[in-house]
Automatic annotation (TrEMBL):
Entries under InterPro entries matching the protein: UTP_pyrophosphatase-like, YgjP-like_metallopeptidase
Membrane spanning residue stretches: none
Designated name of the protein: YgjP-like metallopeptidase domain-containing protein
Pfam family membership, one: YgjP-like
Stretches assigned to the YgjP-like metallopeptidase domain: 115-173
Matches recorded under CDD domains: M48_yhfN_like
Amino acid sequence: MASSPRPAGSVDTGAAALQPRPALPYLGSYPPALRQQVQDLIDAGRLGSWLQQRYPQVHTVQTDRLLYEYTMELKDRYLRSSVPLSKVVYDPKLHIIRNALGTHTTVARVQGGKLKAKREIRVAQLFRQAAPEFLKMIVVHELAHLREREHDKAFYALCAHMEPDYHQLEFDLRLWLTWRELAPAPAAAPAHPA
Ligand SMILES: [Zn+2]
């Protein structure tokens, strides 16, 4: 997918100027060459089919209860000794903030006169419609935060321990988010031109 770079000093004109290119907000931390490959895929109108081919399924973890069980199964396997998890839910109010794929919070509550901290994981509602691989990636990411606060080497090592394909999946998930934002809503899709 190599493409020749635009000559230095050239100016966007005509149609290109009227259609500013999306900034690929979900891919900001990846190298420019990789971002260019993604842009080429988008320009060729092939990102959707590429994703569809690679990730054809939607997972079956469709309720909060199933999500909790799914998460606990992974936690018991890899992080049995870390802090208890009081709640795992899909959150319809959670917007995908750039570079934050989910949230993990410690909720402090007063119980019987004592302040108790509980860990909760919230997964953005839109991941209900995701491929099973992407759901696992998100849950692995948030579980790793039970032990590692920052996105540092130790954090990613733990992610890769739980899901060996973690890095590829995080990249592909960001492609999926990019594609979702570019795709017109089904109802708004234009009819075939005559
Ligand atoms: Zn994180």
